[in-house]
Amino acid sequence: MKKSVFTFALALLTAASAWAYDFKAGDLCYNITDETAKTVEVTYEYEKSSKNYSALSGAVNIPETVSYNSMTYSVTSIEDYAFAYCSKLRQVNIPGSVTSIGEWAFADCSKLTQVNIPFALCSALKQVNIGDGVTSIGDYAFAYCSALTQVTIPNSVTSIGEAAFANCSKLTQVAIPDGVTSIEGWTFQSCTALTEVNIPNSVTSIGYLAFGYCSALTQVTIGSGVTSIGESAFSSCSALTQVTWNAINCANFIYSTDAPFDDCPVTTFIFGDQVEHIPAYLLCYGMDKLTQVTIPESVESIGNDAFYNCDALTAVYYTGDVAGWCGITFTGSTSNPLLYAHNLYIGNTLVTELVIPDNVTEIKDYAFSGCSTLAEITVLATVPPTVGVDAFDGVSREIPVYVPAESLEDYWVAAVWEEFYYLQAMQTALHTPSMPESIRVHGGMLHNPQQLPVSLYDMQGRMVYSGTAATVSQPAGVYVVLCAGASGKVLF
User: Fold this and answer.
1) Whole-number Cα distances in Å, 300 to 77, 277, 341, 368
2) Which of 457, 445, 450 is nearest to 484 (CA)?
3) Pairing of strands 440-442, 445-447
């Protein structure tokens, strides 16, 4: 249909004359667009498609200026259909003087493999169909194409350069083909109409701010081949609520303000069913809206502080069976919210100390079933939470369970809680025997007379203090203290 419209348009133009240009310089034809400003546009040679620039082959360099009748003109635009049906053309180099490219300017250039377009051009370009055979899209290739709504990228493309589509504010969708292996920095930055992005499995790297400030973006799928994501790759995607993560070998992330999903309102994070390791620090910054995480049975390990600072996290779903979940290794995290989450629906036998937050009123069926290595439980709720069917099945009833002192008698008579032999009031002393003896908590303060390096975490895994002060005060509550390689809980 499009070709028919295009052919009809050329037919109408042909009726006017055999040629439609003011002058020819070198191999190209030009129309004068402003005699006062001395500007011209590149136009077609013949209006009949079979003859248009029939002699052109290989590479064409469009000049910044041309001379005509002893006058010098600046080349500022490329007219509609200018190079249409140039079947031998393989490369076009467009100068920085050009500020707009017309519709169908390179239509049916069947052998065109490369178009070098400078920064901030193509303000009239609405649609781009990149021909088969193109292997790369260069830096800033279509940057600031403010009218561009649709791009077709062939499977032959393997790389998309820096800022290639940056600030294409009307681009609503783009299909990144399976052949692409890298997306450089700023590639789609500020594509404010883009709503969904699927990173194919062939992509191994996503650059700095590659999709930053895509304010309409709601869903992102990260392919399995991604091994690195640049700082702030999806930063300030203010509508992004769901991320599906399929990357199976991605590096750890640095805990910083430049995390990949910084300042995104992501509520749901889904790990694909081939993911074996969740990277350290992946969601540690800017994910304070995250409420739900889905972890597949393929996961074998979770990196240090992978979900640190996910303050809104209330549900962690494990899609496999209890035995699989219990085999997950936590690699060095002392403040993983998975240990303190409000709702864990399947147990984890590697959790040796479980802290149940003070706002929990119910522990669901089978929540910690099979957690045979659980050695200690702290319950912060003053009212004993109701316990579902087999919620602690397989958990020894001879482990200590610490509860608020004022609620101890209530726990002694509460269903299921009464089964634990060693229900006792929370202590103010540290439980870790290897903790330096000089570290003590009394009088509502932590005393550190030797001024050793000490870190304090609250029960949501947030660091609330790090330093060497002789005394440290905190609001009343239970905290985890780390010092000299040892850890333990304290009650302020």
Assistant:
1) 57, 6, 19, 18
2) 450
3) antiparallel
248-295 pLDDT per residue, tens: 988 777 666 567 888 889 988 999 999 998 888 888 777 888 877 888
Neighbouring residues of 409: CB distance < 8 A, sequence distance ≥ 6: none
Cα separation values, 95 from 129, 307, 326, 438, 473, Å: 21, 48, 62, 72, 65
Q: Are 316 and 343 in contact (CB under 8 A)?
A: yes
Whether 150 has a pLDDT exceeding 70, the answer reads yes
